[in-house]
Amino acid sequence: MDVNKARVSIFWFRRDLRLNDNHALSQALKSGEEVLPVFIFDTDILKKLPDSYDRRVDYIHRALIRLKQELLVFGTDLRIYVGKPLAVFEKLQSDYQVTTVFCNTDYEPDAIKRDELIKNWADGAGIGFRSFKDQVIFEKSDVLKKDGSPYTVFTPYSRVWKAKLTTESLLPFEMDAERFKKLPFEEIPTLEDIGFQQTDLTFVKPVLDEGAVREYDKFRDFPALDSTTRLGVALRFGTISIRECVSLALKCNETWLNELIWREFFMQILFHFPDSQTKCFKSAYEGIAWRNNEKEFEAWCNGETGYALVDAGMRELNETGFMHNRVRMVVASFLTKHLLIDWRWGEAYFAEKLLDYDCSANVGNWQWAAGCGCDAALYFRVFNPEEQLRKFDKELIYVKRWNPEFESKAMNRIVEHAFARDRALHTYKNGLGK
Q1: Do 163 and 95 belong to one domain?
Q2: CA of 423: how far to CAs of 83, 118, 210, 388, 417, in Å?
Q3: Partner of 287 at 20 to 30 A CA spacing, among 1, 59, 132, 307?
Q4: How many CB atoms lie within 10 A of CB 325?
Q5: Are 263 and 344 in the same domain?
Q6: pLDDT by residue (tens digit) across 61-73?
Q7: Closest to 164 measured CA to CA, from 136, 141, 142, 148
Q8: Phi and psi (nearest 5°) for 98?
Q9: Which range of residues forms the domain containing residue 28?
Q10: pTM over 0.85
């Protein structure tokens, strides 16, 4: 051990790009060591992204710029690295006398493997590795049935979740900024440095709009009103605290609270059943004979099905990286039921395009739409896109915004609804009977 090297604990930013109410950061700053904050642009993740024009990478980059500005106030800076996490930590070990690595727990299968690799390295190097619950209120095995097994149906899970919630569950974690290691400012690597390009993204610090939350249950299904909270991306990358969100939901709106609980439900499903990332939770659905017509899939991707609401949603997604939640359900049902295309194709497309992409929620919601998930819509529930349009965009405001030529396209619809519905019911029934 080189006693001349500075002795530090490392705080590793990941899905928690904020200083306030950050559990593991708070613990690191209480550890007694100076804290070196780091972020790693993980090349194992970046190389899987198919397009250098990726709004999520741009979002992270801009969130890091804001973090650096906030840290400068405390006389320190964020050290940003590009590479494989293990190689970065080996370099940090050579530059510093590292005592402990602090981070917040991630529950996705790939993240678990990454963290096991770093923990094994840390154990071998005599370095502590400590992770903490931060992006959820209840994690892993916090909410279980009486027999110790995980819930696979939302309603009983949410009931127990709410019963377990206490005031202490929502207390924010304090930050002792005096414990940061003093660091000079360093320029952040540019997006071009890491192989990406600036997008049309406008980054704003997320704020909780109490008015929007109070009205959430009244207007959330109407895409033209844009009356959702738009906090999906902030929760995905941790630029806002889940404890702050739940506290407001408890005060203002149970429907929005239930949406936050759905997020945790899907996270614990993926944690306990990691195979569900690529396999139907209900294994019987693996017998469905998907048509998987590539031309029809391309038409769906491009918003050229001839169904006004479906096409508007896909064009909004392609142009902005966002799609209204009601419309997400319609386009997912259309792909899996009307076109009989495997839910995994749609899930992968959303994973590529969505700014607020979250693996567990994306997989969970796609399996819900396809009927094959843990607590899914029954297979014979087939959304009628025209009826959905009449109910939720009667004045065609949303459709005209994203799909202005919808009337001319309707003459050449990719498939007729009644025919597609009957075909889907027949195909599902046969597949489930195998």
Answers
A1: no
A2: 49, 50, 45, 20, 10
A3: 307
A4: 13
A5: no
A6: 999 999 999 999 9
A7: 142
A8: -85, 125
A9: 7-135
A10: yes
